[in-house]
Amino acid sequence: MSKKYVKWFMLLALIVPMFLVACGGTAEDAVEDAVDTVEDVASDVADTVEEAAEDVAEEAEEVMDEVEETAEEVMDEAEEVMDEAEEAMEEVMEPCGPVSDGPFAGVDPRGQTVVWWHNHSSSREELLLEIVAEYNETNECGITIEALNQGGYNDIRDAVNASVAAGEVPAALVVGYQNDQAFYQLNESLVDLNEYVNDSHWGLSEEEQASFYQSFFNQSIHVAFDDQRLGFPPNRSIELLHVNMSYLRDLGYDAPPTTPDEFVEMSCAAAAASESGVGGYVLRDDASALAAWTFAFGGDVLNAEGTEYIYNSDATVQAMEMLVELATLGEDGQVCAYFFDGFPNPEVASRNALFAQGSSSGIPFYVGDFATIAEDAGTEPDEYGVAAIPHITGDPVMNIYGGDVMIVKTTPEQQLAAWQFVKWFTSPEPQARWVEASNYFPTNAGAVEFLGDYNEQNPVWATALDLLQYGKFEPQLISYQSVRDAAQEAYNVIIQGGDVQATLDDLTETANELQEELLEEIGN
Q1: Rg for the chain (alpha carbons), in Å?
Q2: Which residues pair with 473 in a beta bridge?
Q3: Cα–Cα distance between 283 and 271 in angstroms, integer?
Q4: Of 131, 164, 415, 428, which residue is most buried, by most CB within 10 angstroms?
Q5: What long-range pairs does 267-271 form, CB within 8 A, spacing at least 24?
Q6: What gap in Å lies between CA 254 and CA 111, rounded to an integer?
Q7: Which residues contact 320 (CB under 8 A, 6 or more apart)?
Q8: Do the beta carbons of residue 110 and residue 94 sit within 8 Å?
Q9: What CA–CA distances, in Å, run from 205 to 201, 210, 407, 474?
């Protein structure tokens, strides 16, 4: 019974007795009758409600059973659909299978053979071939990398240029410096790796990109070529100060110099302590050393746009004036810096010098020479260490360098296969293996967690590793190979007494002329 009818029934039960009173009945009788009537009605209503509730409960139970059955059927159907979708996805997303949209739609890298011209030899090459063999055996794409040693960077540069000049395609994967990339790209010989790096399927995620040391990661982005990424970094070296720490402490110092003034003081203290009156710092006239000192004095060898050389800035002038001071015979008859014909490792290890400057790739050779000289003398080896180039900047500014791998324009399939290998080789775990094999620095910071106790076993290397965060790189211009020779010549002219400012002005003019001549020669 609905609520509406119950209300009308109750109202009628009250009105009827009132009507009877009005017709002559007593009020008490009327009330009693009303109460009885209400009780009867309430009883009837309760019975009706109970019956209705039972009916509703039964109906609800039936509905719930139907809902459960329907839900089970829907879930079963959904599972079937999901299984079918999963199977379909597995078919479509077969490892390394081509995608249907985007810049690489339909490009299938599977089964490709990629030739890699590299510059590694001896034990490095042996270990590199082991790493490459592992990739060839395990990669899901069925890609084969043929790693071929082609000599040094100069040899590879000549081979690539000869191939391009003959209208032939060189190896699909080659190594070289950033200025090589610029030269090759004047003929549009290289792939812009930005498309590969940023591709949603074949590329690197934001997190993966962020795991690279950014100075390394961005070193091959060329402003002169609309910010194309013309290479990718497999390893790096850094320009360091190599130090005989035991000799340093015997001279009364607790730590390597951090400023140019401290560097001059310590170098001259070593010269004073030497029997020959020559000591301190072994001069390095390489263009990378000149760039490193310029960075340390807060300058650069390129303008802000990266298009012209500026070797005559105040920073380079101040750096060279400091080196001239060290290399000039003083009133006390001492020379605090000197040239040495050959590698300076033995000079530092034998205390003929306190400092030398050079690449971090020389660390194993210094370690070996410190041990050899001590063994020959029948003594314990001195402690060897490295430090940042002394600087006037708040933080060190470290000159980093190293060749990149470049993907040559061949076929879309070859190019994508080459990129798949590059992506794998520069991922953390293979990078850690390459570090142990080569003693280079990784370009991917994630490699550190796979190095185990390598840092503890190689504390000097670990010290240098901490300096990678302060990296800055040298010019990418096509003329830089020739400019390096000019810079070395200017360095020697200055050390031999040439006017610092005038010589650096001439170097700047010569460097920019070389750049212009090369551009004109190739029609740009």
Answers
A1: 40
A2: 400
A3: 14
A4: 415
A5: 267/326, 267/336, 267/337, 267/354, 267/355, 268/326, 268/330, 268/334, 268/336, 269/354, 270/336, 270/353, 270/354, 270/355, 271/334, 271/335, 271/336
A6: 58
A7: 290, 293, 491, 494, 500, 504
A8: no
A9: 9, 9, 20, 28
The phi, psi pair for 146, rounded to 5°, reads -105, 100
Residues whose CB is less than 8 angstroms from the CB of residue 355 and which lie 6 or more positions away in sequence, other chains included: 241, 242, 243, 263, 266, 267, 270, 280, 281, 282, 348
- Cα-Cα-Cα-Cα dihedral sign, residues 320, 326, 327, 330: positive
C-alpha–C-alpha distance, residues 366 and 318, integer Å: 29
Q: What angle do CA 212, 217, 218 make, to 5 degrees?
A: 145
Instruction: Kindly give the interhelix angle for 480-495 and 178-185, rounded to the nearest 10 degrees.
Output: 140
For residues 99 and 201, the answer to whether their CB atoms sit within 8 Å is: yes
- Token couple for 122: 């001896």
Contact by Cβ (8 Å): 331, 499: no
Give the CB-side neighbour count of residue 241, counting CA atoms within 13 A: 29
Q: Would you call 280 helix, strand, or coil by DSSP?
A: strand
Number of C-beta neighbours around residue 101 at 10 A: 9
Q: Which residue has the tokens 């990266």?
A: 306
Helix (H) or strand (E) holding 336: strand 335-338
Q: What sign for the dihedral angle of Cα 79, 84, 88, 93? A: positive
CB-based burial label for 206 (10 Å; 0-12, 13-18, 19+): exposed
d(CA 42, CA 473): 96
Helix or strand or coil: residue 308? coil
User: What are the tens digits of pLDDT across the range 370-418?
Assistant: 999 999 999 999 999 999 999 999 999 999 999 999 999 999 999 999 9
Instruction: Output the CA torsion 373→377→381→385 (10° steps).
Output: -40
Per residue in 454-513, pLDDT (tens digit) is 888 999 999 999 998 898 999 989 999 999 999 999 999 999 999 999 999 999 999 999
pTM reported for the whole predicted model? 0.76
What is the Cα–Cα distance from 353 to 337, expressed in whole angstroms? 9
CB burial readout 60-77, b (16+ within 10 A) else e: eeeeeeeeeeeeeeeeee
C-alpha to C-alpha distance for 214 and 221, rounded to whole angstroms: 11
